Amino acid sequence: MKNKDPRSLQDILADQTGDLFSRLTQQQTQNDTLLSRIRAVLPSHFAKRLLAATYRNHILVLVAESPAWANRLRFETENIRDFWETAYSDPEDRYRLEKIVVRTAADVI
């Protein structure tokens, strides 16, 4: 039987914030892992210029240091796609990659 006692707003918010913080922490860890794995595929001079990577809704977003590095990184997207298909193959197609988007840090700030 559920407890019918009223809960304070502070307790309710603490529960929701805890879940949110946990999800954000988990997402950041996944993004950091993804960034490291993609950097490992790139030539070292590109890897240093890749600032962030995230995957959502079948789209991989890469954030480059500057417009010049973003343009250069676009030439590496085929290698990244090959890596993705090998590393993230999934029979349920959860990690299908439909598109790779390259942005600059200025675009996302």
Explain what you see.
The protein has a single domain (9-108), classed as GMP Synthetase, Chain A, domain 3. It has helices spanning 9-41, 44-47, 67-74, 77-87, 105-108, and strands at 50-56, 59-64, 99-104. Strands 1-2-3 form a three-stranded mixed sheet. The radius of gyration is 19 Å and the shape is elongated. Strand 1 (50-56) and strand 2 (59-64) form a beta hairpin. It is built from five helices and three strands, in the order ααββααβα. The model has no long low-confidence stretch (mean pLDDT 87). The chain has 109 residues and is of the alpha+beta class.
Q: What Rg do the Cα atoms give?
A: 19 Å
Strand order of the largest sheet: 1-2-3
The total count of strands amounts to: 3
CATH topological fold name: GMP Synthetase, Chain A, domain 3
- Tell me the name of the CATH class: Alpha Beta
Largest sheet, strands/sense/barrel? 3 strands, mixed
Number of helices: 5
Shape label: elongated
What's the rounded overall pLDDT mean? 87
**What is the percent of helical residues?**
55-70%
CATH architecture: 2-Layer Sandwich
- Seen as an oligomer or otherwise, the chain set is single chain
Strand/helix succession:
HHEEHHEH
- Give me the secondary-structure category: alpha+beta
pLDDT under 50 segments (min length 5)?
none
- Overall tally of domains: 1
* Distance N to C terminus: 48 Å
Proportion of β residues? 15-25%
